[in-house]
Structure formats: structure tokens, C-alpha cells
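User: C-alpha cells for this complex, please. No commentary.
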Amino acid sequence: MATRILPLELIDKAIGSQMWILLRGTKEVVGTLRGFDDYVNLVLDDAVEYTPDPDDKTKVIKTKLETEILLNGNQIAILIPNGSGPPEDSLAAQSG
Amino acid sequence: MSDPTPTDSNKESTAKKRSPSDFLKSVLGRPVRVKLNSGIEYRGVLACLDGYLNIAMEQTEEFGLDGQLKAKYGDCFIRGNNVLYISAQKRKGGS
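Assistant:
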């Protein structure tokens, strides 16, 4: 019988490594995962926020947050362990 | 509804390194930046907060989407459902 892995176990294994997070809407965040809780609120280090430029939607604004952050789990759509961020600075929700 | 973070009475087994509740305890009374879903940012001293991420701040400054200072408030209350993230402001001390 195949061993089952719970979703939260997968996140737990990713603690200490980089995580690419797609939020509801178009925002994306990349950071080093320090911890999380049952609601998948995340504590991230060295987080970088990617948002579409309000003036030119094809451009991406990259903001380094420089400190530890607590990201609200309510806004999280997809977690990608070891993800290094949007390729070519194009946001997933905007491509295709 | 929405997203209460576990409180002390709700000890979660998953948290090993630095759980969200650890973070919240460590930033109490310190200068923080709070970003809302709308993109508006509030900077000030974190007076108190709860598991819903409802926040009371002092010496609050409001920054618009363009990063320009829009307003200042002595005290302000932010309802937790609007909060995208809370960030400790600058200096990494205590983390």
C-alpha cells in the first residue's frame, strides 16, 4: 500500500527552503519558509513581492521586504516548494 | 469565518521552527508594516492584535499604491480580513 502524505506534511518538509507562493488575484511572493500553522498562514524570511505595475500591466514590480513577514493564509492560492519566482518576471495569472 | 490564527489554547503539532503565533508575539510593541489586499500599506507601532489579524496601531502612517504618504493617524484599527501581510520594520533584532 502506498504511503500517504498529507498536504501539510509536504509544506512541513519545505521549512527552511525557498517557497514560491501564488496569491489570489495576481500577486506572487517568494521567500524562505520559516513556519506555518493549520490555516497555512506563513512566516517568511527575505520575502520578495511581485505585483503587476498599475500603469503598465505587462510589467512586474518587484519589492524586497527585507524582514520577516507573516503572510495571511486567506490570500494564498498555490504553494510551490523550491520555486524561485515568476520566470522572466511574468506573473502566472497574467500569462496565457 | 475567515482565518483565525491558532491561539495558545490551540497548540498545533505542525509548527516546528517559527510559527505565525511566535511571530506575532515577537512583533508586539514594535514598528511594523501592514499591507492590505488593496495594496495600501500602514506603518506604525503595533499596539495589539488577535488571532484574526485584527490590528491596533499607533503613530500610523498610510501609504498609497504609489508609495506616497497619504495620511497620518494617532491610533487606528485594521480589521483582519483586509490584511495581506505583517512585516517587522527594518532592523532584524529579535527575530
